[in-house]
UniProtKB/TrEMBL annotation:
Molecular function as annotated in GO: GTP binding; GTPase activity
Species of provenance: Thermococcus paralvinellae
Annotated protein name in UniProt: GTPase
NCBIfam families in the cross-refs: PRK13768.1-1
Family statement: Belongs to the GPN-loop GTPase family.
Signal peptide: none
Flavoprotein listed as a keyword: no
Keywords: GTP-binding, Hydrolase, Nucleotide-binding
One Pfam match: ATP_bind_1
Keyword Methyltransferase: no
């Protein structure tokens, strides 16, 4: 099984990769790790495949590039090696029960660069987990954004994508968040009362969402407490098994 963690910087991709991998290993599974972040300096896990062996952002910056330019340039330089990485991941998949892929800290370099898209197109049935933090959910239309963004990642990468709220140990109103994220009818009703332009846009989008969104189960995770790890394992199993779906 291939699980790909993606999300914005600070969403907890590397930490969840480490902790969930350890959780699986403790259950007796063989776990392989892939690091696709050219800018990370220290990892909490030992990667079996690491793009930093080819190039790093730090090395490119010594050539005079700024941070953002160096990140983009690093994936330009990875492109000639894309087939090697695809072959390496496929070989790792044959040896391990799970392969966990940790994507770049700046998620746009994975979603909008040819490297990330081509990699995903050539992996067999990867499950993408879109991590987001509770602090981005400040307004009602933020919940609509999270659901649609997961769908856009699915469309861009051509891989089943499930949204997962990470760091739930940092909040005390999880049930309120769940109500808005999971119950689209409830969210749509509330958004209808918002007279702002953004409220109207979110209302129309959420009205349309049930027609285009595949059945999914929203995940709620905590790397610190391991809450939600069992649900993530179950969803991964259902994704690869004909006996289940992601509802």
């Amino acid at each position: 099984m291939i699980i790909v963690f993606t999300g914005t910087a600070g969403s907890g991709k590397t930490t969840i990769t480490t902790r969930f991998g350890k959780y699986l290993a403790e259950k007796g599974y063989e776990v392989g790790y892939v690091n696709l972040d050219t800018g990370v300096k220290k990892l909490l896990y030992k990667p079996d495949i690491d793009v930093r062996k080819t190039i790093t952002v730090e090395k490119i910056m010594k050539e005079g590039y700024g941070p953002n330019g160096a990140i983009v340039e690093s994936y330009d330089r990875l492109m000639p090696h894309i087939d090697e990485y695809i072959a390496g991941i496929l070989e790792l998949k044959q040896k391990k029960d799970y392969v966990i892929i940790d994507t770049p800290g700046q998620m746009e370099t994975f979603l909008f660069h040819e490297f990330g898209v081509k990699l995903m197109e050539n992996l067999p049935e990867p499950l993408v987990v879109y991590l987001f933090s509770p602090e981005i959910l400040r307004k009602l239309h933020d919940y609509c954004f999270v659901r649609f963004f997961a769908l856009m990642i699915d469309l861009r990468l051509g891989a089943t994508t499930i949204p997962a709220m990470n760091k739930i140990d940092t909040i005390d109103d999880l049930e309120r968040h769940k109500k808005y994220i999971e119950d689209l009818e409830y969210l749509t009703t509330r958004l209808k009362l918002d007279p702002s332009t953004h409220g109207l846009l979110a209302y129309k989008l959420c009205t349309f969402l049930p027609e285009v969104s595949p059945p999914i189960r929203i995940l709620y995770l905590s790397a610190k407490t391991r809450e939600g790890f069992e649900d993530l394992e179950t969803v991964a199993y259902e994704h690869y098994c004909t006996c289940g779906d992601l509802t």
